[in-house]
Design goal:
The protein has helices at 42-64, 104-118, 120-127, and strands at residues 4-10, 14-19, 24-27, 68-80, 89-101, 131-138, 141-143. The strands form 2 sheets. It has a 4-stranded mixed sheet with strand order 4-5-6-7. The longest helix has 23 residues, at 42-64. The mean pLDDT is 96. Strand 4 (68-80) and strand 5 form a beta hairpin. The protein has 146 residues and is an alpha+beta fold.
Length: 146
């Protein structure tokens, strides 16, 4: 059985994507490009994968450090190359927002380790030429590495 399979199910461009356990994701393009806008744009799925990959790293690292993480929110923005086909991500900017009984230095370090060392999606984006930056907000206060 393939790792991923997809089938056109919505209009001309909408694809239902399934994994081996029958989890489903919809991928489509915006209406102004001929799609229905019914799902993630293909390049958005890369940023979604980045949040998933990084969240696993951060939770795992903080658990090992005996930190009490209550919430984790990850926001990603980015810019793609202008005037090129294909157009890859040039910059990716991430905001990690965490709450809980956390040492801010450990929370920052967990995010840094994820993005610079452990997250395969981040490394894939870097190898494609993207510059990745991030900031960490712990309990409402932005923390920067000293």
């Amino acid at each position: 059985m393939p790792i991923i399979s997809s089938e056109r199910t919505i209009g001309d461009y909408g694809m239902s994507v399934r994994d081996q356990k029958d989890h489903t994701m919809i991928i489509d393009i915006p209406e102004e490009q001929g799609g229905t806008g019914a799902g993630f744009r293909p390049m958005q799925t890369m940023l979604a994968a980045l949040t998933g990959c990084s969240s696993v790293d951060i939770v795992s690292i903080l658990k090992k450090q005996k930190q009490s993480l209550q919430t984790l929110k990850i926001s990603v923005d980015g810019e793609r190359e202008k005037g090129k086909e294909p157009s890859v991500w040039e910059t990716v900017d991430i905001v990690f927002e965490m709450t809980g009984d956390l040492d801010p230095a450990k929370a920052f370090r967990a995010a840094d380790l994820s993005i610079s060392k452990y997250c395969s999606v981040a490394e894939t984006l870097r190898r494609a030429g993207a510059t990745i930056s991030f900031k960490v907000i712990v309990n409402g206060t932005e923390f920067k590495q000293s």
